[in-house]
Amino acid sequence: MTAAYATYRRVIALGGPLLPVVSFLGRLPTAMCQLGSLLLVAETSGSLTTAGLVGGALAAGQTAAGPLTGRLADRHGQRPVVLAACWLNALAVAALVAGSLARIATPPLAAIGLLAGASVPQIGPLARTRTVALARRAGADERLVGAALSFEGTLDEVSFVLGPALVGLAATLAHPAVALALAAVLLAGCGSAFALHRTATALRPAKAPAGARRARTRLPGGVWAMRASMALQGAMFGACQAGITALTAHLGRPAQAGLVYAAMGVMSAVAGLSLALVPARIGLPARWRAAGVALVALSAPLLWVRTLGALYLVVVILAVAAATRPTAAARPVTRAVAAPADSAPSASADHRP
Question: Is 260 helix (H, G, I), strand (E, B) or coil?
Fold first, then answer.
């Protein structure tokens, strides 16, 4: 563990200790809003169907607009894109809270949820891209780059520990609206801090020479297969979240939904941090296969869970397989060119950080 600790210290040193703090707090609302919207709408409308529709609209908006946000960040830089997105997202989340408390009809509430999802600033993926750019600029080897991605992936996992836990506590002690109001504040404050951090200039947009036309390239078949697997993986996690909410409500303990999901995230974060110790000879394909088989096998017991204790046990074990998937070690989603602030940006369309 000493070697892992030293490696992660080098990762944090790449951008300074403030960067992971503001990026973590900036991405925390993403973990809060999905479950928070489910609990809030379920409580104010009295209908899990309405809650599912609004939560689904929020997830659909994030899925559809996420790649566009990354593309805009590639073309115009992270700073202006994240600033605009986090403020728009904060306003949309605030509108979702107001609409839910006012008990407006399902269609307009779902439309607000769609906007709240579409305006998510994607701080997690952009932070991974930024960290890799900093590592490349510092001349880091592949092992440090992999550790940087594992660290960023673990921050995501920890956010999905604290986010649902905060929502669960708010639902228990006060109201789910309190958690979403906090999410809006974090989006405006910490999202802006991430956008304005000095490391935002580590990535500069790639500009093609004047008059040059960008050649279209055909994506390999494996890319489409990976996209399909990621979509199915997202469907599984969405089903788990909705199922946990429904089951805890059925058991008469609806406020436990956030805490159950948080327990899942705790184990996932612990397993994610341990990935830095996995031998390099165990490559990504092997990890993908093992994680995929484990996710299928360990998800099956959820069909027979009937008590709160059994639910905690099953999701904690399932979380190990969720963290073992090599998503954190995959290439960043954006294609911005990593370049020092005082150097000219590269025009290579094929460059990957």
Answer: helix
Reduced to 3 states (helix: H, G, I; strand: E, B; else coil), residue 197 is coil
Of 98, 135, 132, 133, the closest CA to residue 113 belongs to: 98
Please give the Cα distance from 189 to 186 (Å, whole number). Answer: 5
How much is the average pLDDT of 190-197?
93
Whole-angstrom Cα distance, residue 257 to residue 241? Answer: 8
What is the sign, positive or negative, of the torsion defined by CA atoms of 311, 97, 81, 220?
A: positive
Say how far apart CA 346 and CA 204 lie, in whole Å: 9
CA–CA gap between residue 344 and residue 346 (Å, rounded): 6
Taking a C-beta distance cutoff of 8 angstroms, is the pair 26, 124 a contact?
A: no
The candidate with the shortest Cα–Cα distance to 265, out of 319, 341, 200, 312, is 319
Residue range 308-322, pLDDT digits in tens: 888 889 888 888 877
pLDDT over threshold 70, residue 345: no
- The token pair that represents 342 in the structure block: 């005082």
Phi/psi at 138 (nearest 5 deg)? -85, 0
**Average pLDDT of the chain, as a whole number:** 80
3-state secondary structure of 203: strand
CB burial of residue 21 (10 Å; 0-12, 13-18, 19+): middle
List the structure tokens of 289: 């296969």
User: Where exactly are the structural domains of the chain?
Assistant: 2-205+221-331
What's the CATH code, domain 2-205+221-331?
Answer: 1.20.1250.20
SS3 136: helix
For the stretch 10-44, pLDDT in tens is 888 888 889 999 999 999 998 899 888 988 998 89
